[in-house]
Backbone:
């Protein structure tokens, strides 16, 4: 990634890391268990470090916000939104918008050309199977492929690591790929 960072957050992050290192050196050198106050202080510092790291990348002046503004225009340059929320029955707006921007049309294996405006965001893996609500675990599908092929007819769709999709019917007698076969030795 390239872009601007929030310098104030970076300075705070460095200071907190130095404080955490000092605390670590004073509590680990004596051989005895750290006091409860020291343990709480370490936890508080670790949480502060994590918070500043997130602020550095995602805050209003952070790297993620800078990249979002540059690629999506100033109107979307507000605070960063989560792109992974564990699991949610509904798709939050930030994830929905990111999936629409990434996919742009129905991603059904076989290259459906329905535009994003005619599509819905679908969880690739259901909650019962360990699915998550995240950009990586959601895909854009038109009404027919989402509601009919998957939910009514029971087809399975997977989003491959390279961004392609593969689908198969319930008895696995038909398998569809959004990509061609690998190129043979040439």
Residues:
């Amino acid at each position: 990634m390239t872009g601007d960072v929030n310098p104030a957050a970076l300075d705070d992050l460095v200071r907190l890391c130095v404080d955490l290192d000092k605390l670590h050196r004073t509590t680990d050198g004596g051989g005895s268990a750290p006091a409860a106050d020291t343990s709480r202080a370490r936890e508080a510092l670790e949480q502060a470090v994590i918070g500043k790291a997130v602020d550095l990348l995602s805050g209003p002046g952070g790297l993620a916000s800078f990249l979002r503004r540059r690629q999506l225009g100033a109107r979307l340059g507000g605070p960063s939104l989560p792109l992974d929320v564990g699991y949610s029955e509904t798709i939050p707006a930030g994830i929905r918008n990111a999936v629409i921007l990434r996919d742009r049309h129905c991603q059904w294996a076989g290259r459906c050309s329905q535009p994003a405006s005619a599509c819905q965001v679908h969880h690739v893996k259901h909650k019962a199977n360990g699915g998550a609500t995240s950009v990586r675990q959601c895909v854009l599908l038109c009404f027919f492929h989402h509601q009919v092929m998957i939910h009514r007819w029971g087809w399975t769709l997977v989003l491959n690591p390279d961004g392609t999709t593969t689908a198969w019917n319930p008895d696995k007698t038909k398998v569809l790929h959004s990509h061609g076969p690998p190129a043979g030795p040439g």
About this structure: The radius of gyration is 23 Å.
